[in-house]
Structure to design on (221 residues):
């Protein structure tokens, strides 16, 4: 067990904390451990009066940022469904790209009801569940320790930053953005992250993502 998820009591109810047990633990190890815990543990849902996530679409209308690996996984996952698209086509079809000043944000697109484009409105289940984005896999509306929250935010932010850099480098800007306000965009503002040239979460080590302070809080080696 390279990543250990721990049920913990908070003032708001039962949530989770985590510990890294192996210096070579990857983001895939993190995802698998957290997904298993979300399904099996007794956790307090603080936004909806439900006992499990399946069939609850409470978070499907929220901002869903994408990482560079998310887009690649989406591309691969859609192929068996008969959709063969380039990464740029995936971005234009299923992502929403907006810029304000120097900030660029890439999220999953929403339908006319404000819900994620991959949500089945009848079953309230995800159409792409096996390859849904990391932010979806790692979210549950329960209390979370500060270090677990910081890890999730760090992973999502670095993964999205790498996707932004890829998009700015590979897609004509006049075809990239859905919304722009007073843009001051410069490719030089976007540095490479550990997500560069990575196509699976198993190829990205948690240690490489974390700043030393956060890694010391997480790792029990």
């Amino acid at each position: 067990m390279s990543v250990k998820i721990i049920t913990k009591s908070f003032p708001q109810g039962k949530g989770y904390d985590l510990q890294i047990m192996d210096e070579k633990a990857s983001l895939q190890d993190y995802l698998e451990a957290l997904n298993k815990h979300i399904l099996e543990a007794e956790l307090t849902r603080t936004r909806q009066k439900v006992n499990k996530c399946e069939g609850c679409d409470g978070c499907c209308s929220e901002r869903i940022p994408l990482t560079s690996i998310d887009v690649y996984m989406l591309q691969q996952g859609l192929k068996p469904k008969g959709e063969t698209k380039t990464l740029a086509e995936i971005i234009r079809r299923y992502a929403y790209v907006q810029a304000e000043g120097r900030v660029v944000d890439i999220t999953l697109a929403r339908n006319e009801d404000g819900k994620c484009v991959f949500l089945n409105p009848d079953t309230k289940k995800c159409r792409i569940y096996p390859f849904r984005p990391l932010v979806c896999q790692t979210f549950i509306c329960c209390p979370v320790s500060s270090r677990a929250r910081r890890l999730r935010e760090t992973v999502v932010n670095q993964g999205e930053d790498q996707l932004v850099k890829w998009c700015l480098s590979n897609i004509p800007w006049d075809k990239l953005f859905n919304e722009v306000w007073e843009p001051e965009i410069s490719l030089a503002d976007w540095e490479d992250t550990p997500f560069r040239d990575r196509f699976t979460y198993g190829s990205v080590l948690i240690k490489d993502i974390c700043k030393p302070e956060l890694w010391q809080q997480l790792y029990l080696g």
